[in-house]
Amino acid sequence: MPCQRDVIYVYDGGLEGMLCCIFEAFEKKERPAAIRPEQELQPSLFEARWVETDTARAKRVAQGLEQKVSPRAAWVVQTLFLTTHPEKELLALDFTRLAFQRGRQVTAMMGHPVVSDAVLTARRAFGEAHQYKGLLRFSDVGGVLAAEIEPKNNVLPMIAPHFCARFRNESFLIYDRVHHAALIWQDRQAQMLRVDALTLPPPTADELQARRLWRQFYKTIAIEARINPRCQMSNMPKRYWNLLTEMQDGEEERGALAAAEAAGAQRLRPRPEYGTIEAENAAGAGETVSPRG
């Protein structure tokens, strides 16, 4: 049994750093009082111990989980890192320790408080990422597609492969307002950057017209007799609506278009909406997908 220590592990805030904290706890046969990224460290009576990030050590933990336990167990730990669970690092450590003790069956032990907390937390993050694959809306900003998200969890690394594959010939940017991170895809290369603040340029008259046309299309295809608000909110929760083009009233766009026309702007040619990603989800036809067992 590991000894409980009045020490706080401090790491650099990356996934490899968290895995190195797990390695450190195994190596010293101890359980720290807490594990914190350096930017979140608060004054404490406990000793703060810096854990250096070592790629080789992190790899041993990740490969050990995948090969000696199961790929699903490795997925749980890696996904936990992307969540907003207040003690995600300590939970990942406790889950990893239990995983090496119980083996492949660990992810099915939902009666165990550590397993249920870890697995359900990871599932919720996965579910949020899945919803963003259908509810993300891009805008045309100077020939580049740009979108903003406000997720509870750090879903950007989870949705990046989907959009990079789907728009491999485009250039696009996805900005996470909550976690201050941006995914940039250009020349078929992806970059994940830390961005403290980002303000996108105001939409052009052409973009505003495209949004108006998309809202009109969205309303036109609806079958009034089959409108089901409860089903819609189940597949498209209200917290996503402020960034969904079809759920805006269009007042800002109408004002901007009127100003453009008053200034003698050329009438715009209709074009397809750039950012319609899996539009069936917006109409309440999406289906929640759980991670593979």
UniProtKB/TrEMBL annotation:
<feature type="region of interest" description="Disordered">
    <location>
        <begin position="256"/>
        <end position="293"/>
    </location>
</feature>
<dbReference type="InterPro" id="IPR023875">
    <property type="entry name" value="DNA_repair_put"/>
</dbReference>
<protein>
    <submittedName>
        <fullName>TIGR03915 family putative DNA repair protein</fullName>
    </submittedName>
</protein>
<dbReference type="Pfam" id="PF13566">
    <property type="entry name" value="DUF4130"/>
</dbReference>
<dbReference type="InterPro" id="IPR025404">
    <property type="entry name" value="DUF4130"/>
</dbReference>
<feature type="compositionally biased region" description="Low complexity">
    <location>
        <begin position="256"/>
        <end position="267"/>
    </location>
</feature>
<feature type="domain" description="DUF4130">
    <location>
        <begin position="87"/>
        <end position="246"/>
    </location>
</feature>
